[in-house]
Design a protein that fits this description.
heterodimer; A: mainly alpha; 21 helices; B: alpha+beta; Immunoglobulin-like; five-stranded mixed β-sheet; binds iron/sulfur cluster; binds copper (II) ion
Chain lengths: 468, 149
């Protein structure tokens, strides 16, 4: 009996999008993803210029701020990650310079990469570094999202950092383990995505001894993300660069449509690094809400570093909340689950496995949070596209379009609906993980109850916080 | 025994269904005038609570720069400069929490200058908590029921 996600779609249901000949042809062309990267780079050039000339002026009328923190962030959380997995990494312009340098060219294939090509240390092959990097980045959210120059500095450091680090470490180690603040959650949250890149027929891969996708050939590079394209398992570390479509001599790679969140059921390579990523992301959604959409003025002064003590208090509270408090509360519920379920199961295993229920919950919390930006504030975008550098331009005739919130009356219903859907999805995943972990069905049911209670409490808390 | 359980169940259900009605005890609509002080980047008070049907007048006083106040859902707004107060009036017919946001760019944190208007009783909050608890109960029932088969 195959399991069904939400009782509706079988876990192993797939529809191959690349079965359409034109799609496959486009994907196999070396213009993909080169062309979208170049287009994206031109947008980022405007963002960087706007960030630079914008200086410390108010960010809400700045192209850089608006495109990064409204357009990009909302697209990422609401569209790209849930629907298209790490598609952002496919078209991300930030590590492009480093990659072109490694390949000493733009589109041609060169499997002997330029640079020191150092291997990434084994002990650091996990998400811990990016966990701290992202948490650290959020300390500056009060500046990043309000001062154009701060966004400029952040993006420039990622670009320069990527060039340097990619000259030292081989392939995309920069994206995978070190340099990109968002890379970690893009990976983890992509486990929910309704698309995936996988090999079609495992038997073909098995019979193919010379693994072109792993070592590369004249048609394409060895997997730059250093995973095994014939055995991807989870979306986490597949950057969707499409090289394996080019290297596979049997056309055995595919982009599939699939039910949401199936990767969370893959009991392989789970770890505490990803558990903490899930906690941190949930906590940051809550803190961002308090800073950006909450009513507590003092917290905004803290995040805005009006006083040093205030800022340090914010950094301390934010860190304790994300790194200790959320995991601590979660631990209590996991402990209860073990007590009710089966005391023989190692606590660490239960803790790690169940932490994956927070992945749908977290992404959904971010989507609900994003509605609170989309409806009230997206009209700023019309202004900044007409006058990106605040030089009095009016490219599209919209530079005088006033700030116009829309649908703010129904916004809470969007948020509540999303959060309740998130609860249903995470409960569904939660029980499946429970069965997987406890093995026996009656234990799984009893062990599931505290976890379900935790997820419900978090949902109610978020509903109350966002809308009540 | 079985009957007892049934009766208790019905009573609990009735209480739960009845709760919004208890909450909804209509207070007499009143005229309310509220003074809000605006400064970079917050309102004082940061939360305004009224009852459904109240006729609310907000006087906005700015103590530093030019600020505004826009109320989500009600789509009314006003603005104030130091020495030049703003004012707006509306009848609080929609219940729930509504964000009051600054509508005049007043500095870097301007988009985050936010207060809340809470119009009671908040059916929406009660209803959605009730739904979440319902989903929780259903999920437990569902997983334990399948167990017997
Ligand atoms: S990991 Fe970060 S820098 Fe690398 S491609 Fe993805 S978003 Fe871009
Ligand atoms: S498996 Fe590797 S080569 Fe294939 S798309 Fe993903 S990252 Fe690229
Ligand atoms: Cu203001």
């Amino acid at each position: 009996m195959t399991e069904k996600i939400l009782g509706l779609i079988p876990v192993d249901w797939r529809f191959e999008l690349t079965s359409l000949p034109y799609v496959r042809k486009i994907i196999k062309s070396r213009w993909m993803p080169f062309l979208p990267i170049v287009l994206n780079l031109s947008v980022f050039t405007v963002i960087l210029m706007a960030g630079f000339v914008g200086g410390v002026s108010a960010g809400n009328y700045n192209f850089g701020i608006m495109f990064v923190w409204i357009v990009w962030w909302l697209l990422l959380m609401m569209v790209m990650v849930p629907f298209f997995s790490r598609v952002w990494c496919m078209i991300c312009p930030l590590p492009a310079f480093g990659e072109w340098l490694q390949r000493l060219g733009f589109m041609k294939v060169r499997n002997k990469l330029f640079g020191l090509n150092k291997k990434w240390p084994k002990a650091l092959k996990n998400m811990w570094l990016v966990n701290f990097l992202f948490l650290g980045t959020t300390y500056t959210t009060g500046f990043l999202t309000t001062r154009p120059i701060a966004t400029f500095i952040l993006l420039m450091s990622i670009i320069i950092g990527s060039i340097v680090l990619m000259a030292v470490f081989e392939k995309r180690n920069f994206c995978k383990y070190i340099g990109c603040p968002v890379g970690g959650f893009l990976g983890l949250y992509s486990n929910i995505a309704v698309t995936e890149i996988r090999a079609k027929d495992p038997q073909i891969c098995k019979d193919h001894k010379h693994k072109d996708c792993v070592i590369g050939n004249e048609k394409g590079h060895a997997c730059p993300w250093m995973i095994l394209p014939f055995d991807i398992g989870r979306n986490t570390y597949c950057g969707m660069c499409l090289e394996c479509f080019k290297t596979c001599p049997y056309d055995n790679m595919a982009i599939n449509l699939r039910p949401p969140a199936t990767d969370l059921l893959v009991d392989k390579n789970r770890g505490l690094d990803e558990a903490w990523k899930a906690f941190i992301m949930l906590g940051i959604a809550i803190f961002f809400f308090l800073i950006m959409q909450g009513n507590m003025g003092f917290l905004k002064d803290w995040a805005n570093a009006t006083t040093t003590e205030g800022y340090l208090t914010f950094v301390a509270l934010h860190s304790i909340f994300n790194l200790l408090l959320i995991p601590g509360v979660f631990f209590v519920f996991v402990y209860a689950s073990r007590t009710l379920g089966n005391k023989e199961i190692p606590l660490k295993k239960l803790f790690t496995n169940f932490s994956y229920t927070l992945v749908p919950m977290g992404l959904i919390a971010w989507i609900a949070f994003s509605f609170g930006i989309l409806f009230p504030n997206s009209s700023y975008v019309l202004h900044v596209i007409s006058d990106p550098f605040a030089w009095g331009w009016d490219l599209f005739g919209t530079s005088h379009f006033p700030w116009t919130p829309f649908l703010t009356g129904v916004m809470p219903y969007f948020q509540i609906g999303t959060l309740l859907f998130g609860l249903v999805l995470s409960l569904d995943i939660g029980f499946k993980i429970s069965k997987q972990t406890f093995q026996k069905r009656d234990q799984a049911v009893r062990g599931f109850i505290p976890i379900a209670a935790f997820l419900t409490v978090v949902t109610i808390f978020l509903i109350w916080l966002f809308t009540g | 025994m079985k009957i007892d359980k049934l009766i208790i169940g019905i009573i609990i259900l009735a209480l739960l269904v009845g709760l919004p009605l208890i909450l909804a005890q209509p207070e007499e609509p009143k005229e309310k005038t509220i003074i809000i002080n605006a400064k970079q980047f917050s309102y004082t008070p940061d939360t305004v609570e009224v009852n459904r049907g109240d006729r609310v007048t907000i006087r906005l006083i700015s103590t530093d720069v030019h600020h505004g106040l826009y109320i989500d859902g009600y789509e009314v707004s006003t603005d104030a400069r130091p020495g030049q107060d703003g004012s707006l009036t509306f009848v609080a017919n929609n219940t729930g929490k509504f964000v009051m946001r600054c509508s005049v760019t007043c500095g870097p944190f301007h988009p985050y200058m936010i207060g809340y208007l809470k119009v009671k009783p908040d059916y929406r909050l009660f209803g959605s908590i009730w739904l979440a608890v319902g989903i929780f109960i259903c999920s437990i029932l569902l997983v334990s029921r399948r167990q017997k088969q």
